[in-house]
Amino acid sequence: MPWTIVPYWSIDLLYGLAFLFCRSVRAVDRLALRLLAVQLVSVACFVLFPLRFGGGQPEVVGVFAPLFAALRAFDQPFNQAPSLHIGLLVVIWAQFAHHSPPRWRVLIHAWALLIFVSVLSTWQHHFIDLPTGALVGALALWLWPDESEAPLAGFRLTRDAERRQLAARYAAASAVFALPALAGGAWLWSLWVSLSLALLSLIHLGPGSAGFQKMHGRHSVAVRMLLAPYLLAARINPRLWSRRRPDRDLISDEVWLGALPTRLEPINGRLPALLDLTAELPAPHNAAHYRNHAWLDLIPPQPAALAQAAHSIEALRAHGPVLVCCALGYGRSAAAVAAWLVLSGRAPDATEAIVHIRARRPRIVLRPPHLHALQALAAHAPCAEIPLTAPAQT
């Protein structure tokens, strides 16, 4: 498709124009670091496994022939996977899409898609170079996000034994999924799963829930690309476990406990306020009153985190019914509701709070570390107590 040489070449112009969207020194630095990271990672891959475009390139005649001639005068058929062109495209596309007015975004997405396809239609790359290049670009976006601190800035290895153990399991699973890629062909897609699990291991070792870059109930584009296999599994898993079981149960005074829904349903004629305790799941779009404490799955929360969640529950009660959620509504959310029961005086201690919740939602799973955190909260944080308030009007 000779005409696609035009969008292929256009990335050189867009590369320079992308910096015009920067409105601060920090923004310039972030964009420059992203572009540099893409180039460093890609070049390292070119050195580690040098590849060459196979099958030759056809002769082009007509109006687009000079553009192909100019390209092939310096661009030799090496440096294939991951595609540096695509890695840079992801960074530039994100810069344009993030800073442009909404009315321009359809055009931006469409042109970016043309550039994406053009590396195939101009016979510059094989297909596998495209998704690998896109993941390198996504990695650069994750390393230097727009709205939060860099996840690896001031990296500190966690001292939490459970997080280290879970990180080791994710790392082992990553290695297992990398093995099929040695067979080539369609098995190369397993590299995406492997990368996703490797990044999860890194997140658990260092940045924790901040590594999921969940803002206002949504993950960053980089996380959605890099962790797509895991995020898909995280959305399917609750549905497999909670079939034919109640989505939510009333615990006390219009505070409900349940799984995070894809769409909020009314309770007593009103949409509930939502406390979302997941790091790995997106929030429903129709949540009018929403708070998120992003807690890692399978990791018991600390007493301070429990206190924050309890106060969020009480604050959200001003808006009517409150739905406290995690992936299944059996672990993280149950611990948060137990903390609220204790700090508000509705339960005399952590044990009674758990008994009260289990009577209404029998399948909750609170292990000894949860109980210890709740007991520590009750014993050592009297200043965190919540004043008793009247039940929310419904």
TrEMBL record:
Instruction: Work out whether the entry's keyword set contains Lyase.
Output: no
Q: Which CDD domains did the record assign?
A: PAP2_Aur1_like
Superkingdom as given in the UniProt entry: Bacteria
**Which SUPFAM superfamilies does this UniProt record tie to the protein?**
(Phosphotyrosine protein) phosphatases II
Q: Which residues cross the membrane?
A: 6-25, 32-51, 104-121, 166-183
Cited PANTHER family: OS01G0859400 PROTEIN (PTHR47216:SF4), PTHR47216
Q: Which InterPro entries match?
A: Dual-sp_phosphatase_cat-dom (IPR000340), Prot-tyrosine_phosphatase-like (IPR029021), Tyr_Pase_cat (IPR003595), Tyr_Pase_dom (IPR000387), TYR_PHOSPHATASE_DUAL_dom (IPR020422)
The cross-references to Pfam families, in alphabetical order and at most eight, read: DSPc
Tyrosine specific protein phosphatases domain segment(s): 304-372
Q: Which organism is it from?
A: Thauera terpenica 58Eu
Report the protein name in the record: Tyrosine specific protein phosphatases domain-containing protein
Keyword annotations from UniProtKB, A to Z: Membrane, Transmembrane, Transmembrane helix
User: Which SMART domains is this protein grouped with?
Assistant: DSPc, PTPc_motif
